[in-house]
Amino acid sequence: MILKKEQKYIISPELNSLNRFSPKLKIAVLASGEGSNFQVLIDLAKKELFDIDIKILICNNKNAGCVKRATEEKIPYFICDESSCKNRDDFEKKIINKLIESDIELIIMAGWMKIVTEKFINSVRKKIINIHPSLLPSFKGKNPIKDALENGSLITGCSVHYVVPEVDSGELIIQGALAINKDENIQNLTNNIHEIEHLILPFAISEAGFTVRR
Asked: Is residue 132 annotated as part of the catalytic site, yes or no?
């Protein structure tokens, strides 16, 4: 059990160290929003606490905070706006080509707000993971934090899983849980879940990367 800011988090499996990779694990981050999980990975890599090489950020929103973070850290990024593509197939093809061009070993969806097709997933099977703000299999889909509150759940959290064609249904890698207070509001709960995400995502990447390298 991990205590942080007087909040009790339960994380399973209990992993205490990150796997070592030599050469460094080549990753791509797919994000659509602020990019706080992206920043956690940047910081770990800069401090040489995690053997990852963030080859590229791929984003579908040119105004997203994650793009600003990539710019500041001089990390290559690619903006793929679906509205400028002929269709979804064209959109995904551009992303796949960029992943191949960047020689990516593992893809991390960290706040990627697009459902990917089976064709995309099959092209990178077992090389793509996603972080989701609920204790899967509960509250799959778009608004899991709101759904947990509205359904009167007593606990919630976040999960990192392999991506499969069925939304939020892939094999779990790691989960973190916390209690929902009686007077909880969505913003506070979201902030608490983000803290757990920041803790568990590196370990999930470490475990998935070890599988990729085997």
From this structure: yes
